[in-house]
Amino acid sequence: MNKEIVVLIGGPSSGKTTLIEALKEKGHTCYPEISREVIKEAQEQGIEQLFLEKPLLFSELLLEGRKKQFKSALEEVAPVVFLDRGIPDVLAYMHYIGDAYPAFFDQACKDHKYNSVFVLPPWQDIYVSDAERYENYEQAVLIHDHLMETYQKYGYSIIEVPKDTVENRMEFILNQLAK
Fold first, then answer.
1. The pTM is what?
2. pLDDT for position 86
3. Are 117 and 7 in contact (CB under 8 A)?
4. CA 56 to chain centre
5. C-alpha–C-alpha distance, residues 73 and 60, integer Å
């Protein structure tokens, strides 16, 4: 059986997590965004914004977590697994802040290939900030641009999910995968 690993990407507050939760409610196998866990753990240790204070450490933790998610997804019984963000997201965020990273970041993107990538574009009407999401809407748009550029660099054909209801967005993705 072929495993289909599907990644949902997009800037902050574009609806990825809401869509992942909706897919999960419909019985699909889904993996959550792990950056919130990393951020919360750092905040519990007194580091308010690990990504801003120690971006390379934050990115290394994300990279390792996303590699583990990929490996776990391969071992799932379900034929399709949805991920809230993928490994190239880590590099896109490093590009966004203008930081360099070790060569093993690039190699991880080459070694872990996703079957499908869907992007949720910036959508100001649904944008909100919270304790773990410090970016404003304009920054979210820039992050979106870096995500697109990074995933395209690794040869992905990215399918844009229309701005619509959660149900319609989910149906769009499932219909695309059925083709």
1. 0.90
2. 97
3. yes
4. 18
5. 20
